[in-house]
Specification:
The protein is of the alpha/beta class and about 425 residues long. It has 2 domains: about 350 residues, TIM Barrel; about 55 residues, no CATH class. It is built from 16 helices and 14 strands. It is globular. It starts with 11 loop residues before the first strand and ends with a helix. The protein binds D-xylulose and cobalt (II) ion (CO). The site of cobalt (II) ion has 5 residues, from loops. Cobalt (II) ion binds next to loops.
Length: about 425
């Protein structure tokens, strides 16, 4: 045991009336909701990078957090792992997620990066066996190091593509060894700063080839997890190719990968793309590519990817509603891609941020489940489209323009507008919160 979380108890469910900060008011892991335990609906994961590797910097100032593992040695990386697994257990979080660069210090060469990642992977494996904590997904950090400043797969330099591909191979290997249930690709630098120096056609083709190579490798080694792309429109680049769910779907179709890849959808990224979270979730579901979520929230005023812990239950209820409609998670889960504010210095802040986030997710899930079970929202939606389920509606959809013109003239069709009933539906949704 380290002494980092000294005095902090394991967090348990105590119900809404409790005064205890270190307790869940809504998240009761074993409570059955819609025939499934809450923990199996939500499948919570802690993001290693924000909680254990992020130093608290912003564009105007550097490190604010002081952590005993902030140094470049393997010893420090192991201390970080010790503390991380202590936190997973305090929270009862069943999963975690990591990038290679969060868990091992950067080596001088690719070979050194690989051996360090292997050493930490073995260390994780022992801890996972001991604690029962599992890996939701692994990923490669192809955006922090300066070699990736002009992109990884989409770099103008083939050697960077090669380095990125080699790195992804090692990260899929690590994920596979640890029984990871997914592997994520977030292309933070796969985009451009200025079109003036960018050959978009070439870069897009490189990204497509890279993804095909990832899929080939997954099948070659028998990795059974899902490959997930995480869309984001911009930041750090001015424009990112994986802009949003719709854009990525077009890209997947283009490269014949729509049945091989699913989406990891992040709340804050949806907002940056000018969508709601539920829009991205619903679209991915409808396209058959829904995979997993990065749960967080963006500040609605700043326009940055602020990666705050989620706390808007109303929004979260709508998100989980779409997930329930998708049939729930299969390999995916709820990863808290969220970081403390830089003034939140205490170890307790890390725990309490997750406690609140897990509780809000549980409250959102319960509201979503009630809404789902009640069926009133779906009934109203179905009623709005009822005309399309009639023989007349089906005939209209099948007809060509000439016959429709003849029909409208002959039958003197004069459509009568109907209310969309938005406020009525908003009132209905609020009743479940
Ligand atoms: C960046 C982001 C990443 C991915 C994993 O905005 O969300 O942390 O989740 O690379
Ligand atoms: Co994310």
């Amino acid at each position: 045991m380290t002494d980092f979380f000294n005095g902090i108890p394991r967090v348990a469910f105590e119900g809404p009336a409790t005064e205890n900060d270190y307790a869940f008011r809504h998240y009761d892991a074993d409570q059955v909701v819609l025939g499934k335990k809450m923990k199996d609906h939500l499948r919570f994961a802690v993001a290693y990078w924000h909680s254990f590797a992020w130093p608290g910097g912003d564009p105007f100032g550097g490190q604010t957090f002081e952590r005993p593992w902030f140094s470049d040695t393997m010893e420090a990386a192991k201390l970080k792992a010790d503390v991380a697994f202590e936190m997973f257990q305090i929270l009862g979080a069943p999963y975690f997620c990591f990038h290679d660069a969060d868990v091992r210090p950067e080596g001088a060469t690719f070979a050194e990066n690989t051996s360090r990642l292997q050493e930490i992977t073995d260390y994780f494996q022992q801890k996972m066996e001991k604690t029962g904590v599992k890996l939701l997904w692994g990923t490669a950090n192809l955006f922090s190091h300066r070699r990736f400043m002009a992109g990884a797969a989409t770099n103008p330099d083939p050697d960077v593509y090669a380095f990125a591909a080699a790195t992804v191979k090692t990260c899929i290997d690590a994920t596979h060894q640890l029984g990871g249930e997914n592997y994520v690709l977030w292309g933070g630098r796969e985009g451009y700063e200025t079109l003036l120096n960018t050959d978009m056609k070439r870069e897009r083709a490189q990204a497509g080839r890279f993804l095909q190579a990832v899929i080939d490798y997954k099948h070659k080694i028998g990795f059974k997890g899902a490959i997930l792309i995480e869309p984001k429109p911009q930041e750090p680049t001015k424009h990112q190719y994986d802009y949003d769910v719709a854009t990525v779907y077009g890209f997947l179709k283009d490269f014949g990968l729509e049945n091989e890849v699913k989406m990891n959808i992040e709340q804050g990224h949806a907002i940056l793309a000018g969508h709601s979270f539920e829009h991205e979730l619903a679209l991915a579901r409808d396209l058959g590519i829904f995979g997993s979520i990065d749960m967080n929230r963006n500040d609605y005023q700043s326009g940055w990817d602020t990666d705050q812990f989620p706390n808007n239950v109303g929004e979260m209820a709508l998100a989980y509603y779409e997930i329930l409609k998708a049939g729930g998670f299969t390999t995916g889960g709820t990863n808290f891609d969220a970081k403390l504010r830089r003034q939140s210095l205490e170890p307790a802040d890390l725990i309490l941020a997750h406690v609140g986030a897990m509780d809000c997710c549980a409250a959102g899930l319960k509201a979503a489940a009630a809404m789902f079970e009640d069926g009133k929202l779906e009934a109203a939606r179905a009623d709005r489209y009822a005309g399309w389920d009639t023989a007349r509606g089906k005939d209209i959809l099948g007809a060509d323009l000439t016959s429709l013109a003849a029909k409208v003239a002959k039958d003197n069709i004069a459509p009568q507008p109907r209310s969309g009933r938005q406020e009525r539906l908003e009132n209905l949704v609020n009743r479940y919160l």
